[in-house]
Amino acid sequence: MADKNGFFDLSKTAFASKTGLTRRTALKGLAAGAGLAVAPGFVRYSQAQSSAPIKIGFQSHRTGIGAAYGRWYEKTTAAAVKAINAAGGINGRQVEVIIEDDGTDPGRGAEVVGKFATQHKTDIVYGTLFSHVVIGSAPAAGENKIPYFVVSEGHHVASTKLNRYVFQPGITDVKSQIQSMAPWIAANAGKKVTQIFPDFAFGYDHRDYLPPALKAQGADVIAQIAIPPTESSFTKYFPQIPPETEVIYHVMVGPAVLTFVKELGEFYGSNRPQLFGFIDSLEATDINSPGLEFLDGSHFWEGSPRYAQPDDSAAQKAYRTAVGIDDNGAAVGDPKDVSTAAHMFGCWETLYVVKKAMEDAGYKGPEDRAKLVEATEALTAFAEGPEHPQGAKTFNGKIHQCFGIQNISKVEGGKLKVVHKTKIEDGLYEAEGDYTTQAL
Amino acid sequence: MHFGPHLLLAALEGLVTSAVLALTALGLSLVFGVMRVVNVAHGEFFMLGAVLAWAISTAISGHPALGFLAALVIAPLIVGAIALVAERLVLRRLNYNPEATIVATIGMLYIIQQLALSFYGPEARPVEPPFSYRILLPWFGYSGYKLSIIAASALLLIATWLVLTRTRIGLVMRATQYDSETAQAFGIAVGRVYGGVFALGAMLAAIAAVLIVPISQAHYLMGQDPLLLSFIVVIIGGLGSLRGTVVAAVLIGLSDGIISMFFSPTLAKIIATLLVAMVLVFRPQGLFGTASR
Question: How far apart are CA B174 and CA B249, in angstroms?
Answer without folding.
Answer: 22
